[in-house]
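Hi support team,

I've been running sequence recovery on a batch of backbones for a student project. Most finish fine, but this one hangs at about 90% for roughly twenty minutes before it completes. I'm not sure whether the input is malformed or the queue is just slow. I've pasted the structure tokens below so you can try to reproduce it. Let me know if you need the job ID as well.

Thanks,
M.K.
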């Protein structure tokens, strides 16, 4: 490792990293020197690796944790790819068994930290990560909680709308309607129908989940309840986090508002044309069912309505994909090719044989994509998702030699960012030409095509920002008790309106539980990670293929994330500069399309 890091450091000095500007300098900048020094520091720290006496204990504890995590992950995979009572029970048993082992390791780790106040360095970090735990102390509660989790997941996975003898599932039927339909009744039907068959069945279970998890966090000594343990788990510390999120959002908001104003204007004229007399909300919000996505989280599917240059044809990548890569497996291979071409790992035979990449028709499964299961359809959205999920696997493989407590992202945003950053390079017009998904010829209107393309990116990345922020903002308030169960839905819509400027197309009440219509709520899976991706990497250059990046992936969670980030980008804080710069040409164009008084909505 040491030689490797030094070698990489030197290599890095000669390379220059992607800063998303056009004048990449080959000479050694202060910033680069600084980053090399950080690398060297990491090596030195490893050398000085603290208290040797704890090493055998740590080794043993890591191994115990590895085994139970592996077993749990396996049982979870079994359950999610074949949802039935028997598999739920097996998962439950695995959870109870895991909790017993975890409890012992955790209390030992806490004791060792108390008894060895001088312990420092890596041993301390490992102990602290092991001690961080909010598993209920009572094994009946562990089992109860496990059952709530599997019930919630099952409701989401099995939800369907039935109409005229036909069954509409989220994937693929409903997501396709939301993406492609421009029929107001149909969109409203799908939007409302999905919420009717998910949230209401979940509300009481969710309330219980919040109660139990908060209680057990407090029992474990975290006075801030589950909000605290969540943030500690995701970011290693709660210090200054709220401010960082807030600042980031403040920097990003003007860009979102501009996009929102333009999209609203176009949608309004489109639907008024199609449905004379159709009334758009007068508070400046956009009806949530018109944005091409069930949750209004990414808007790329309405590119046809909001394209800057509507007369310039957009290459039909979906059709080209179906033609050139007719099987789901082909898309995975395409993604793997890209990863290996930049020096990352091939998927293993176990991946190819064991993953679920299409929806089986003989059993119930959880279709929401994760690293080793999804219900692939051949289109651009899934191609991006495949890159996203494979990014997780690449990270898993890179940190596989770390002790178990470090087999994780530097923070959870790193984990989410890998695949998306790669996908960004894959989805460029240049690369799509290389892999023959769009015609490889120069057209006379390159500028217009670029602008349309940038709009497509903005519809998926910029539109996503407030959504990525608000889901956990809502959950933190729910966990902390600021939001009471009787206000779950009202508070949800307050945030949807406040941050996203979207409004429900039909009236909502506390009989509804609209957060439950989104996978990550019933799955109890953190969301801020999608917001907190390191935007510094949002660049088109192939800079991220550098060996430095591999070294960063290999570190896993073994260093505090600001260290890892600094080594990677030169900065200890996430900032919005790169994403703003990336979209600047589009934003400049948009500014001329809307007037000041068209920007914003009531309550923003
Ligand atoms: N599992 C990923 C997400 O939830 C990608 C997806 O949405 O399919 O982040
Ligand atoms: N994959 C995440 C989601 O589905 C973020 O895009 O919400
Ligand atoms: Zn992910």
């Amino acid at each position: 490792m040491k030689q490797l890091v030094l070698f990489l450091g030197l290599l890095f000095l000669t390379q220059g990293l992607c800063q998303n500007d056009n004048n990449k300098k080959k000479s050694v900048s202060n910033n680069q020197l600084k980053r090399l020094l950080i690398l060297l520091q990491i090596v030195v720290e490893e050398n000085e690796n603290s208290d040797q006496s704890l090493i055998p204990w740590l080794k043993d504890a890591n191994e115990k944790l590895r085994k139970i995590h592996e077993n749990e992950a396996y049982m979870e995979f079994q359950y999610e790819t074949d949802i039935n009572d028997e598999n739920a029970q097996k998962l439950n048993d695995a959870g109870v068994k895991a909790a017993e082992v975890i409890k012992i390791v955790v209390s030992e780790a806490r004791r060792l930290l108390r008894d060895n106040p001088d312990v420092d360095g890596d041993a301390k970090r490992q102990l602290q990560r092991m001690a961080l735990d909010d598993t209920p102390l009572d094994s009946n509660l562990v089992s109860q909680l496990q059952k709530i989790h599997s019930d919630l997941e099952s409701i989401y996975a099995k939800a369907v709308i039935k109409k005229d003898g036909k069954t509409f599932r989220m994937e693929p039927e409903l997501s396709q309607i939301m993406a492609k339909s421009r029929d107001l009744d149909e969109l409203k039907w799908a939007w409302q129908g999905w919420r009717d068959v998910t949230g209401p069945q979940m509300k009481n279970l969710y309330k219980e989940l919040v109660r139990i998890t908060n209680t057990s966090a407090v029992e474990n000594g975290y006075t801030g309840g589950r909000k605290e343990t969540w943030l500690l788990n995701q970011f290693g510390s709660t210090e200054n986090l709220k401010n960082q999120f807030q600042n980031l959002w403040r920097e990003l908001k003007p860009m979102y508002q501009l996009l929102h104003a333009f999209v609203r204007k176009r949608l309004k004229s489109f639907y008024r044309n199609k449905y004379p007399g159709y009334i758009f909300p007068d508070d400046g919000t956009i009806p949530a069912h018109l944005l091409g996505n069930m949750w209004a989280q990414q808007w790329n599917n309405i590119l046809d309505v909001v394209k800057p240059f509507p007369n310039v044809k957009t290459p039909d990548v979906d059709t080209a994909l179906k033609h050139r890569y007719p099987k789901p497996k082909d898309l995975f291979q395409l993604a793997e090719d890209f990863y290996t071409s930049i020096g990352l790992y091939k998927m293993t035979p176990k991946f190819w044989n064991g993953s679920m990449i299409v929806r089986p028709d003989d059993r119930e499964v959880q279709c929401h994509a994760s690293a080793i299961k999804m219900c692939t359809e051949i289109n651009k959205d899934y191609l991006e998702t495949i890159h996203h999920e494979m990014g997780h696997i690449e990270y898993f493989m890179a940190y596989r030699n770390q002790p178990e407590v470090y087999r994780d992202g530097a923070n959870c945003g790193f984990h989410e960012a890998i695949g998306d950053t790669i996908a960004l390079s894959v989805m460029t017009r240049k690369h799509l030409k290389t892999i023959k998904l769009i015609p490889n010829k120069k057209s006379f209107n390159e500028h217009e095509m670029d602008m349309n393309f940038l709009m497509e990116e903005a519809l998926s990345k910029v539109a996503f920002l407030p959504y990525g922020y608000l889901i956990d903002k809502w959950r933190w308030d729910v966990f902390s008790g600021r939001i009471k169960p009787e206000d779950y839905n009202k508070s949800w819509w307050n945030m949807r309106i406040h941050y996203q400027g979207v409004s429900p197309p039909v009236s909502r009440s506390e009989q509804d539980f609209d957060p439950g219509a989104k996978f990550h709520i019933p799955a109890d899976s953190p969301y801020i990670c999608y917001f907190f991706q390191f935007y510094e990497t949002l660049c088109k250059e192939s800079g991220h293929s550098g060996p430095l990046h591999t070294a960063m992936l290999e570190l896993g969670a073994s260093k505090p994330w600001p260290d890892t980030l600094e080594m990677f980008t030169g900065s200890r804080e996430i900032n919005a500069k790169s994403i703003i710069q990336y979209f600047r040409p589009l934003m400049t164009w948009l500014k001329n399309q809307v007037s000041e008084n068209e920007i914003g909505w009531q309550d923003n």
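--
Follow-up from support: It reproduced on our side and the slowdown came from queue contention, not your input. Residues 241-274 form the longest helix (34 residues). No action needed from you.
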